[in-house]
Amino acid sequence: MNIILLSGGSGKRLWPLSNDIRSKQFIKIFKKEDGTYESMLQRVYHQIKKADASATVTIATSKAQVSAIHNQLGSDVGISVEPCRRDTFPAIALATAYLVDVMKVNPEEPVVVCPVDPYVEDCYFEAMKDLAVQADKAEANLVLMGIQPTYPSEKYGYIIPESNEYITYVKTFKEKPSADTAKEYIDQGALWNAGVFAYKLKYVLDKAHELIDFEDYYDLFAKYGTLTKISFDYAVVENEDKIQVQRFKGQWKDLGTWNTLTEAMEESVIGKGIINTQSSGVQIVNEMDIPILAMGLQDVIISASAEGILVSDKEQSSYIKPYVDNIEQQVMFAEKSWGSYRVMDVETEAMTIKVTLNPGHSMNYHSHAHRDEVWVVLAGSGRTVVDGMEQKISSGDVVTMSTGCRHTVIAETELKLVEVQLGKEISVGDKQKYELEY
Amino acid sequence: MNIILLSGGSGKRLWPLSNDIRSKQFIKIFKKEDGTYESMLQRVYHQIKKADASATVTIATSKAQVSAIHNQLGSDVGISVEPCRRDTFPAIALATAYLVDVMKVNPEEPVVVCPVDPYVEDCYFEAMKDLAVQADKAEANLVLMGIQPTYPSEKYGYIIPESNEYITYVKTFKEKPSADTAKEYIDQGALWNAGVFAYKLKYVLDKAHELIDFEDYYDLFAKYGTLTKISFDYAVVENEDKIQVQRFKGQWKDLGTWNTLTEAMEESVIGKGIINTQSSGVQIVNEMDIPILAMGLQDVIISASAEGILVSDKEQSSYIKPYVDNIEQQVMFAEKSWGSYRVMDVETEAMTIKVTLNPGHSMNYHSHAHRDEVWVVLAGSGRTVVDGMEQKISSGDVVTMSTGCRHTVIAETELKLVEVQLGKEISVGDKQKYELEY
User: Fold this and answer.
1) DSSP letter (8 states) at residue A80
2) What ipTM was predicted for this assembly?
3) Which residue in chain A is spatially nearest to B276 when comparing CA positions?
4) N or C: more exposed end of chain A, with fewer CB within 10 A?
5) What residues 228-247 of chain A have any CB closer than 8 A to a CB of chain B?
């Protein structure tokens, strides 16, 4: 099975756990059997691999998410990187071309496109296999997955099918109706549009060539910035007469807000937290190293990270976006391909961060034009390269790097260090990368 | 006017702002005219100085609070340090002897003893002057301040006066009655006992000599650890027939819990915080550098510090003590006589703290038996002395100190530095102090 996972942009609806560079799909919030936690991305990826160990999974995403994806899924996963955001049609076209031209998949094979963040049971991925089989039959150009509605929601699009069969042709689509209208649709057998669909690779490639002048994946990638923003629904679905839909009756949740996310959480406390017995419906998700104490609260979500602290009535939590948009703040933590970092302290002309490198990983070889840096190794061992000079480092070692000097650190074991940045203009953008030759 | 301020022990009722070494009186929570904040201690001290610029103020407290008091009030304030806690009678006797033997105050002069944490208007301190004048008249051996009750509280002791005059003799005391009984007392003109009283220094000195075998302040200090724990009420008040009470009708609040403390706060947000319009009665006290967002909450206090995060229904906040007692945690921040420190990160064999030294101040000259240390200067300038070698330091400088090496840092301007502690056994107790000779 070929799968394209659409990994969407930065969402602030799950602030403070999501931020400008960490989208909700990367938050580790779902308990695994071994007691550790995994993210939506990890959960979905492992579910796919469980349903089909040989599945070719390609994640369509922006440059900003590549590090986090490699950090969470390892370096083997296929990623179709969008050089910039151009809406879903260019993104799906690029990922499709990636499968054919880079992964060398036969254009006659089907692919299933799926958002990265559904909260579903394993049977959902079995249904995805049926979807691929159905697309392969070519009775229609597109096969959608329709979710059996559980209530007349106003926030989903509805698919009106021609019949009540498991697989049937689509009569028409209805965008987010009122609750009353939604109820009528449901009575007629309508289904929620979950944004999952399958097609033969060739079908979307042909559509792409109709609309965009390009040679192959590499050419499309090169001119990606010049493409017009257009959604897949608008560019393809609305103009397609031959669409089928396959019904899915299992549990399906869209975990877009704290309210829905906490419903899917198995525990009331993740991280350090205490809830007193006079509280009910309280959930704590705490990424900080200090305890949270909740007393006498009802139906409240409390979440803390290096970015901030949210305390919200569960229902009200759907409305956080405008408030969070007003919080202007530098990114306080990030997952990178080589590990992670967390801002510990900010002074006018100094910033202190904690860097954790995964074993065997290293930063880019780089320099800064406007700041000096000092590393103090807290734990682990590895090597630094500073202006071409290699040096072994371990706990307690200090490395000083002046403005302009080229440097990197390579972790042998897990390596933790304090990095003090010193300068009048400290910014993430002040970074010149080099090839490491030594 | 001579004043003894009783600065009580560590309270956890205002966790996470109070901790094992920072008592509630040190929390900066009251807005001054210039927009900055002051603590209960600072507020009371400045109110006393406003009422009587020449007042001799002695703070009776434990060793653990001395640094914080000097940090908040400067080095001029008199402190009677209790070598260990021995309840209020030994503490008041020691402070009284301190006034006579160290401050050389005439034993015939009166003194007013007052807790450090009443939340009162300036007129309260005018009333304290009256109290001193009354004690000086020696119509009674003790003159108490009685607070005009505003409701039949069950949590205060009641003073039953002989008449309804401004100053009158005390008939008897009643400890924390039921609300019904309290109401009867109030109808009879009873007053709350605020723990404020005045006497001639000689009176308590004589009582002390009756009960304890000692020469003078220095001798009493030396044998303090051998004294029996006994309260001033039990040792003195209960055996005294000649006690007067002076009525105080102004505003008086005892800020012992979050519920009462937030009533006294002028603003709903101290520090970084946003409260949405669907919330009411929400107050935020945030000492962290990250924002708190409160959505759709009613009558909730949210407080965050390096120690932890409290989110509590205001009424429930009175019951936090047992929960906080169960949170075992190292002290994450502290005010010292030379400045302050904050723990930024804890690893198994490494701890990273941020140290801020006030201009002109320095740490003790000291060494550690079980850890190396590294300083990275973030801001400011000063000098270090390491094993007798003096060195100028400023932003960006790195100082490494091996186990056993003697070191200190002297701030010329305000000096901020990151200190990384490295070793298998990192503890606050691992500290050997030396005289600095260079």
Assistant:
1) E
2) 0.80
3) A323
4) C
5) none
